[in-house]
Amino acid sequence: MAGTHPIVDVHTHMYPPSYISLLSSRKEVPYIHTPSSGDPRLIILPSDDDASKPPEQRGRPVDTSYSSFSEKLKFMSTHGITCSVISLANPWLDFLDPSTAAKTAHQINSDLDAACQQQNATSSALKLYAFASLPLSAPVPEIVSSIHSLATLSHTKGVIIGTSGLGLGLDDPALEPIYAALASTRTMVFLHPHYGLPASSFGPTAANYGHVLPLALGFPLETTIAITRVYLSGVFDRHPDLSFLLAHSGGTLPFLAGRIESCVAHEREFTVNGGDKPGPRRSIWDVLKTNVYLDAVNYGEPGMKAALAAAGGEDGQGWDRLMFGTDHPFFPPLAGEEKWLSVESNLRAIEGVCAGDEARKAKILGGNAIRVLGLDA
Ligand code: URA
Ligand code: ZN
After folding, report:
1. In the prediction, which pLDDT does 46 show?
2. Which of 21, 158, 277, 375 has its CA 20 to 30 A from that of 11?
3. From which domain of life does this come (predicted)?
């Protein structure tokens, strides 16, 4: 698959050393617990903190693939990836004490930026950039300041956020100054799931299927609901310069956009239909072509086709709005293979939709990320 064009991974995570120390210092979710034998264990969801299991079986092991830059570079070499835009993995900094959140975020973002800078100063073959994390538990003026201060981080190309916002979701009116700051600084917002759906959605036998239901369905539906709430609350009407990059190709948004458009058109609560609620003014299709980019992390050709079609059409600018990603270090090979199935299936699906068109493939694999994020890759 590797060719002469750059391959840029826009969806690749780390828990860098400063974040690991932060989690290791905590006793409440999220935290890292180091048992007397084996890898440290990461407990990131209340459901991981299962007191019926011994501590050494709670959560998931965090080996060095989560925290080591050399492991990231090794993974990139294995798959011919020439540039990675690294983001903290969930749950980012959503849980920080409000009084120290902005300072901690600045420290962690600066450390990640410095590591990318150091790598790029020593290698032109494997480049690193970062998406910063916002101190969303801090007072709003401090969050706004931290957005403006990202301009001082030369290798930071946007921010990653989850779906909770300030605690009430991404259609919370209290987020207005934050959206205004993100739009005026032209900061890309990488929206990523973490909280999933309520366990009750999956029924009493869900545990028989391990993590399949929450990961395969809970994650993408969480993203779909979050971005739809952003759209419905008119955020894109008020902030036309805002840009979102949606994880996992927007969850199910590409498939459901037509249904969302239809339900909006029929909604009597909205002023256009005689109601007294504002409702969104722009078409979801317009927002998808103007404010939204999709990563190409959906593991199959039908999903990739839907993403392309929703992003601007298979005959139009859809090719300019999809960006390759891997979700490394999640979904590692279980049987010790060198190549990661999770990566190979995304690459195959991209190959499939490009059907031999090298220029289109080059855009999805790296050209779009380089252009949109302003990478020197
Ligand atoms: N599981 C997670 O917790 N995060 C990811 O990004 C992917 C899988
Ligand atoms: Zn991810």
Report:
1. 86
2. 21
3. Eukaryota
